[in-house]
Amino acid sequence: MIDMHCDVLLKLWEDSSKTFEDDDLHISYNKWMESPVQVQYFAIFVPPEIDSDYFQATLDMVDLFHRKIIEPYSNIKWVQSKEDIEALKPHEKGAMLTLEGCHVIGEDLVKLRTLLRLGVKAVGLTWNTVNAVSGTCVEQVDQGLTEFGKRVVETINEYDAFVDCSHLSPAGIDDVLKLAEKPMISHSNAKSVYHHDRNISDDHLKQFFAKKAPVGVTFVPYFTQSDRATIDDLMAHVDHMYQLGGRDSIAFGSDFDGVTETIDHLHDITDVHHVITALKDRYELADVYRMTYDNAIRLLDS
């Protein structure tokens, strides 16, 4: 499987004594090695409420990615392309850098270009708080991309990276679908299955599916069901997306280490095999392959 979103870097940044060996992480070295996840996307997420400089914190997380995840382990490879991922050996894991929230660049495209040059392959335009790029799914939901936001998308296009619409306002998603060469959703569920601000409408899902753009079903329980969420509840989102035409788009973005609650029997990365089993119970193996692997990377180098 490929997991398109986690917040391990935030955990490592918040506590400088923590290492990737710490098994209180949802995704630690040992847990990852025991899991069926071959490629893990590591998001740079800087909490907007911090007092320190956003961009310095962003660079610190890039440094942590290399010092604590890539460099200590010969079997973890920094991947930046489909070719890199396909070159992984059976015992190797791939790690990719992404960004969650353009508040870290302010109104400075130099900062964005710097991150893209440092290997960030997907850029989430917003978190939950409004920034210079757009409104969000919970603040100024009718605000689409600003003029600066449109320049941000154009810059991401130039670097052949994905524009991630998780957390974005519906109006912003409309704009991205018009402007982005590679739109994606890293970690959101279907709003018509469970109505939550962070989930995506059927109308928008169908537009992503028409582009065969990746849409990451997320393991966040409170985006999945109002009560105690189960893997069957998660599968309801997968089934709905599949029925909408998402066969060539459905992927997964766990949000592990970004949540305090988890879905039953899906408590950390070692439990991902339960998701794969549930998929195999419902779908042909070719479709399981698409959803767990191919849909996430098909457009990576196109």
Secondary structure: elements and pairs:
Blueprint: E1 2-3, H1 8-14, H2 29-34, E2 39-44, H3 54-70, E3 76-78, H4 82-86, E4 93-100, H5 109-117, E5 120-124, H6 147-158, E6 162-164, H7 170-179, E7 183-184, H8 202-210, E8 215-217, H9 231-243, E9 250-252, H10 272-282, H11 285-297
Helix pairs in contact: 1-3, 5-6
Model description:
This protein has eleven helices and nine strands. The protein has 302 residues and is an alpha/beta fold. The chain has one domain: Metal-dependent hydrolases (TIM Barrel), CATH 3.20.20. Strands 1, 2, 3, 4, 5, 6 and 7 form a seven-stranded parallel β-sheet that branches. The protein has a two-stranded parallel sheet with strand order 8-9. 47% of the residues are buried. The protein has helices at 8-14, 29-34, 54-70, 82-86, 109-117, 147-158, 170-179, 202-210, 231-243, 272-282, 285-297; strands spanning 2-3, 39-44, 76-78, 93-100, 120-124, 162-164, 183-184, 215-217, 250-252. InterPro entries: Metal_Hydrolase, Pept_M19. This is Membrane dipeptidase. Pfam families: Peptidase_M19 (PF01244).
Summed up:
The chain is α/β, with parallel strands linked by helices and 302 residues long.
Overall CATH architecture = Alpha-Beta Barrel
Largest beta sheet, briefly?
7 strands, parallel
Number of DSSP helical runs: 11
Termini Cα gap: 21 Å
Output the CATH homologous superfamily.
Metal-dependent hydrolases
Domain module tally? 1
Please count the beta strands (DSSP E, at least 2 residues each).
9
Structural classification: alpha/beta
**Element string (H = helix, E = strand):** EHHEHEHEHEHEHEHEHEHH
The global form is globular
- The CATH class designation is Alpha Beta
Strand content range: 5-15%
Uncertain spans: none
CATH topology-level fold name: TIM Barrel
Helix content: 25-40%
Whole-number average pLDDT?
A: 97
Radius of gyration of CA atoms, rounded to a whole number: 18 Å
